[in-house]
Fold these 3 entries.
Entry 1:
Amino acid sequence: MAIRPSVVDNAKVMAKGQITIPKDVREKLHVNEGDRLTFVCQGDYAIVMNSAIYAMKMLQSEMKGQFETAGLRTEDDVNDLVSALRKENDKS
């Protein structure tokens, strides 16, 4: 069984390279007026993503394994670190 995308739509490129993103695509990407999009080109196709979500995915990828390296294995470890940093910040 082939996997089908949940939204497929088309847009016409205008003279200045502008397009109107179809409403169903905007809703699926959670983008509104003023939001930014990221275009990731691979071969002969492009992936369009909400820029905020793309940035978060890139950060997660870059940070993979860093928590374990820093000894942060549980949510309590993270909370303890945040508390310590806040106390240190309050002193300065």
Entry 2:
Amino acid sequence: MDFPAIIALSVFILSYIVIISEKLHKTIIALVGAAMLVLFGVLSQEEAVGFIDFNTIGLLAGMMIIVSVIKQTGLFEYFAIRQAKKAKGNPAKILVSFMIITAILSAFLDNVTTIIVMVPVTLNICRLIGVKPTPFIICEIFASNIGGTATLIGDPPNILIGSATDLSFNDFIFNLAPISIISLFVSVFIFKRIFKKDLQQANSIQELMEMDEKSTIINPVLLIKSFIVILLVFVGFFLHGVLHIGTASIAIAGAAILLTIAKVDVEKAFDDVEWTTLFFFVGLFILVGGLEKTGILEYLAKLTFESTGGNVLLTGLAILWISSILSAFIDNIPFVATMIPMIRTFGELSGTGNIDFLWWCLALGACFGGNGTIIGASANVIGVDALKNAGYSISFKEFFKIAFPVMILTMIVATIYARIVLYH
């Protein structure tokens, strides 16, 4: 391992240790780590900027602005009251319904957008029924990553794999939707028991049932305008592969149009953007970029293939588990981007005609593995930061103790499914 690789790995590990210790804000740590890679010459300034995924940054910023405008209509309060009344204020029923809704939305939008939309609704409904929102947000994060696995457009790793292969939208649904559904209900079953003590109704149901949700819609004209724009944005997300327009461009265009026609306070809309979250991603992308530039990610990929001796089944299962563990601790986008040419090379060298099994293992591991830690996926960071802004905090260790074991359980289920259903 040469000097740049040692520096890149050391800075990454050190940054991660400090993030876990929570002695400093994670955004400061990520930016300091990124700066160190440039100062030590591991990356040039141009290379560092090149590793920033501006599609993710733009998507997040655009959707945050749109959600900020929608907040001003009262829609989230309306939906919260309606769902709470429908479940008769039962927290457990609300938890299950919100996990299912989140998973479905994530399959056809993307997990980040879904969390941005679901969080304000969840915070409102938890306030109404008198329970802490932390269990709900954790469960929705899990559901968003699981639901995003089901389709070609649900999670960035799937988009990368789809672009690099001839696998279609229907192929993803046919092969990955069943295990996503199974894993979702396994997660629901486990989380209901983990959070059993937290799902106790505190507020009077009579007061809740007497509330008029329609009275919360304070700006119906803005609601109609917002609905039209968000519908166009969602259609754009669904068709972005056909239109050849990035999701960031669609989200930013939607935000710009809505701000133009909504006649709202633009500064307030931008105040609601989670700038600390966005800059955390900037630093994290550069930190992982250092691992990619110095060949560490490529080394791990090659080591995976060499250790299995060319056996397709063993290689697929190794990819499944290695990608899941690594995706819990580093961003899964550069890892998947590195694995794609490695898998292609394996197919050529092994003479194996059909390597679809390897692609499905990569998708499952990268998407499911993101549930393991607070920074395992973009949706996790968004959800946890929203909790903090609402006055509730969950540490890296607390999230890890809850989420990582459940992630491992879903990976065991995914392994059984991969062996029995996907391998043939």
Entry 3:
Amino acid sequence: MNCYKYFNDLINYFKNTINAAKMKDIKDFDDLKKYLFNGYTIILVENNDLGMALETRADLDRSIAESTTETTIHGPKDSFTENYQMNLGLIRRRIKVPDLSVKEQFVGKFTKTKVGIIYIKTKADDNLINDIEKKINSIDIDGIIDSSYIRELIKQDNNTSFPVINGSEKPDLIAGNLLEGKVALLVENSPYVLIIPSFFIDFFHANDDYYQKSLNISITRIIRLIAFLVALLTPALYISFTTYNQEALPIELLISFATQREGLPFPAFIEVLIMALSFEILRESDTRVPSAIGGAVSTVGAIILGEAAVSAGLVSPIMVIVIAITSVSSLIFNSIDMINAVRWWRLLFMISSIFLGIIGVLIAFLYLIIKLSSIKSFNIPYLKPFTAGYIEDLKDSFIRLPRNSLKKRSHLLTKNIIKQG
């Protein structure tokens, strides 16, 4: 009893004299291992079941900086880092109520990576939170190195190339989604926070869409939709018009196409494949080389490659234009998963156009709509709000109405649908 009393006095002594250190109680051997491998100093007292852990680890994190993948014209410039507590603080700095809850779990047999399930109790759906907890608890893996591991392991088996879980390194974007009733997953050692659930329309929204006038943003979102369709359809339509459906073109344009393609050794499909593959190689090299020279290398490479291919008689000038506008249009998304999905579906459209021309493109487009309609993100339709039949959600879809018109949250995400505009 005296020893226990002395140990309590020792705890009080440290609490009163060491102000900078974080102190945790150690109740068992698992706690000891967890804190020891996380850089804590362990204090044990002989013949006593309690222990104490003091945080003495060095600060190995980078400071808060501007995002390099999600550029912002208006609005906050700060972004997440690899520090879990710092990231949590960036969210709490924006949502300053006790309703903001965090459920923490440790995932990975060797890494013991901390994963925080963040939500607002009065907004988020309990069934969604329980589903996410169950999926995280079922993960059996050696280690979690980045949040992308969690995204891949907990997503539902939709058998689709389209991403059903979005991620962001912008705290303001995460805070906005939490206020809508969504759930965020904060993973230790990763600057990307996952947003659950995520829908098709979310990838057409940028983090600074809510910091500008609604009319301007509506026009911008429509441009993004057009760019998405251009990235999907342009090569397939070119193949269709030059191979099967010449009658659909004006005679002057058809003569121009025929003149440019005269003497070329490859059909239109092979032309598209050659130029598309060349662009993907340039894009990959631009990603891997240092940023100081990457832009210059890709720009000069594209100009020289396109000019050389045309001069050598391998491709037509119009093909260079088609691939250029297609490739640029596919870069409107921040999500690399969405960019890759567009790439795969563009190939499917091209293959369909080879066999059936315009009819094949229409069939492929119909299949795309059916596929998107069948996808669910955590039991919610992926095409929300277009398949949900809830008119309030359409006010913030491919257009955005003024803020005072957005008075309700989605009934698919929360029962607390009324919000202050």
